[in-house]
Design brief:
The protein has 2 domains: about 80 residues, GMP Synthetase, Chain A, domain 3; about 55 residues, SH3 type barrels (Roll). By secondary structure, it is an alpha+beta fold.
């Protein structure tokens, strides 16, 4: 059910963003205490609060008109954050040359967490530094943040 809602919302948001410099990063519809519909957007140089508010207003109107989600939920439109998760091929292409943290299902060279520079992505494998890791072994990969 939530995957259907996420796919529907993704399609609507892609349409709303088609003639803008904004990019849809991810949509998630999850239940915490309440139901949350979270839409993550970005653009070159970063997004501003006005970008989020404008999309939120447009999206809320369409979701209400089409009655996409039955029942109540909380809509949040925001940036994916500095440590954004890489999910789509375009994420990997855009972030080549940047440091990433990869959590693995099975250890590689004795490690279940690999930190290094994202050097390549061919759709099936990710190359971090000189280490080639099959995508099926990656539980999660995010941009690395130094504190």
């Amino acid at each position: 059910m939530s995957r259907v809602i996420e796919d529907t919302v993704e399609e609507i948001v892609e349409g709303l963003l088609s003639d803008t410099e904004l990019e849809l990063v991810a949509v998630e519809y999850i239940r915490e205490k309440d139901w949350y519909l979270r839409v993550f957007i970005d653009k070159e140089g970063g997004i501003e609060i006005d970008d989020c508010q404008e999309l939120s207003s447009k999206l809320e109107k369409i979701l209400d008109e089409k009655d996409v989600i039955k029942g109540s939920y909380i809509l949040e439109v925001s940036s994916p954050g500095l440590d954004r998760e890489l999910k789509k091929p375009k994420d990997f292409q855009r972030e080549k040359g940047k440091a990433v943290d990869a959590k693995l299902f099975a250890p590689v060279d004795g490690n279940k967490i690999v930190t290094g520079v994202l050097n390549d992505f061919d759709g099936e494998n990710v190359t971090i530094d000189d280490l080639v890791i099959p995508m099926e072994n990656i539980a999660q990969i995010r941009l690395h943040i130094d504190f």
